[in-house]
Amino acid sequence: MNQEINQYMTKERICVIVPTYNNAGTLMDIISRIREFTHQIIVVNDGSTDDTQRILAAEENLVVVDYTPNRGKGCALKMGFERAVQKNYRYAITIDSDGQHFPEDIPLFIEAHRRNQQALIVGARELNPDRMRRGSNFANKFSNFWFNFQTGLHLNDTQSGYRLYPITSMNLHWPITARYESELEFLVYSAWKGIDVISIPVRVYYPPKEERVSSFRPIYDFTRISILNTVLTVGAIIYYFPKKILRRLHL
Question: Which residues sit opposite 72 in a β-bridge?
């Protein structure tokens, strides 16, 4: 174990949250690699129907949030954050369980956290359009554009789930949708609340098509993202932009 990283995460009360849905084939590999840096791990089993529940039941030194049926990643993240706060954690690194993210990049988040202790840190992936899931590249660019419009901030990868959240600075009662678009909401709401949102480069692994497990439904989910962006844009116009102008006038 990397003792320096482990000690810092313990001192700063940083945990790792792993939301998972039907990723039994990769989950334990991800957890074992996270354990090279910390044992402060919360796994949220979002209604998996494979062997995930059995695998987790055999593990020790894990906090498991388990429920059925599947409710979506937005719900899994909120449940993970709530459990983390209950256990007195102040920050949470979220990492996907499908093997796309490298747990070995956790030190990059810790280094960024040392410099920006109250920031929401996004791991910007080195995106390869030729190897991404169909529609994901366009959805990411679409999301990046609207995030910039809604907040005035620029990020290269608003769809990355590899992040460090300052959970005690966030409002866990924000209305968050259930599926993938929730990660955009966390970014927008955090920016509106005045939380710094920054990005750092991280690696990404694209498994062969036959090994990919995805519940992303391009047409359905893209429609949901479009509706969400309409709502957030209206919110930016009637709430965030006026608030920002008034703040500047009072300086």
Answer: none
Q: Which residues contact 67 (CB under 8 A, 6 or more apart)?
A: 45, 46, 47, 79
User: Which residues, in sequence order, are CB contacts of 111 under 8 Å at separation 6+?
Assistant: none
Distance from C-alpha of 43 to C-alpha of 20, rounded to nearest angstrom: 7
Mean pLDDT per 10-residue section of the chain, whose length is 251 residues: 96 98 96 97 97 94 95 94 97 96 98 96 80 62 90 93 97 82 92 96 82 60 80 92 82 57
Chain-centre distance for alpha carbon 200: 14
Beta strand residue intervals within 51-158, DSSP E: 63-67, 91-94, 120-125
Q: At what angle do helices 182-192 and 73-86 cross, to 10 degrees?
A: 50
Q: What domains, with CATH codes, occur in the chain?
A: 3-249 (3.90.550.10)
SS3 content of the chain, % helix, strand, coil (to 5): 45, 15, 40
The owner of tokens 């901030």 is 153
**Site of tokens 């313990």:** 10
d(CA 197, CA 188): 9
CA end-to-end span of the chain: 48
